[in-house]
Design goal:
Radius of gyration of chain B: 20 Å
Structural class of chain A: mainly beta
Order of helices and strands of chain A: EEEEEEEEEE
Strand content of chain B: over 45%
Number of helices of chain B: 0
Helix content of chain A: under 10%
Order of helices and strands of chain B: EEEEEEEEEE
Structural class of chain B: mainly beta
Strand content of chain A: over 45%
Shape of chain B: elongated
Strand order of the largest sheet of chain B: 4-9-8-7
Oligomer: heterodimer
Distance between the termini of chain A: 35 Å
Number of helices of chain A: 0
């Protein structure tokens, strides 16, 4: 007999329920497992003469594989944190924020075009790295 | 009496703790169960417009999905809505991963002058959209 550990939602019989949406937890299914969470602040200072710029920072995770991750970012033009990747138009400038993983690091990127104005801002990246191996 | 299963983080009393963030597991809150996951390789030809690549999910509902991509021999893995090669040239973009009633759908834009091999990982969660 296969042994399992299930917890059903209220009102459902854990012994007979088969719809996984009615289970709070089922050992039949994997879940994301937190490894580390933190913040990286990237101070960006560029002049209008720089035109396009690329600023990078990173932290080591040293997992020796590509891990599942999530990164959110907020700069001085954003009201709230948002997933990395969105391009935002500033006052004559273009700012994009990216994040990627290598087998040893999480890297965050501020990429933009200062346009006709000087830029001096902080991009605050909130990251969560999970133990789950992407296997890529 | 309502019975729960809970595991607190180290340093927190499982019998008195009330902040969900201080629990490793708490049966009052659903978990994000991974129904299926897999890797797949795509070849994305040079089009300069959005290209869709699909993987059948075989479910009876439209699931919540997530995914990651790596290109060729490049040792960087990106999540959706990001550039995968050269930021300045904007030559290859992993636009999005979405799902419909049949497929997990990856969307790419290849502005390079050659086809590109994409190594992709997808996750399908139990939560219907």
């Amino acid at each position: 007999m296969t042994m399992k550990f299930n917890i059903s939602k209220s009102g459902y019989n854990v012994l007979t329920e088969t719809d996984n949406n009615n289970l709070i937890y089922s050992s039949d299914y994997n879940t994301l497992k937190y490894y580390v969470t933190g913040t990286i602040t990237l101070h960006v200072v560029v002049s209008a003469d720089d035109f396009e710029y690329l600023k990078i920072s990173s932290i080591n995770h040293n997992l020796n594989y590509y891990p599942y991750y999530k990164v959110y970012v907020k700069d001085d033009l954003m009201a709230n944190y948002q997933p990395v990747g969105r391009e935002q138009l500033g006052s004559g400038s273009v700012r994009s924020f990216y994040a990627y993983v290598t087998i040893t690091s999480l890297v965050v990127v501020a990429f933009g075009n200062a346009g006709s104005v000087d830029e001096d801002y902080n991009a605050v990246f909130k990251y969560k790295i999970y133990k789950n191996n992407l296997g890529l | 009496m309502t019975q729960i299963v809970a595991i607190s983080k180290s340093g927190y009393n499982v019998l008195t703790e009330t902040d969900p963030n201080n629990f490793i597991f708490h049966s009052s809150y659903n978990t994000n169960k991974i129904i299926a996951t897999g890797t797949v390789d795509f070849t994305v030809d040079t089009y300069g417009s959005v290209v869709e690549k699909t993987v059948a999910h075989g479910l009876s509902y439209i699931p919540l999905v997530d995914g990651f991509c790596r290109i060729g021999t490049v040792t960087k893995v990106f999540s959706p809505n990001q550039l995968l090669f050269d930021f300045f040239d904007e030559d290859f973009r992993f636009n999005a991963i979405v799902a419909d009633a049949t497929n997990v759908i990856f969307r790419f834009t290849n502005n390079k002058y050659s086809s590109v091999t994409v190594h992709a990982r997808y996750y399908i969660y139990e939560i219907p959209l």
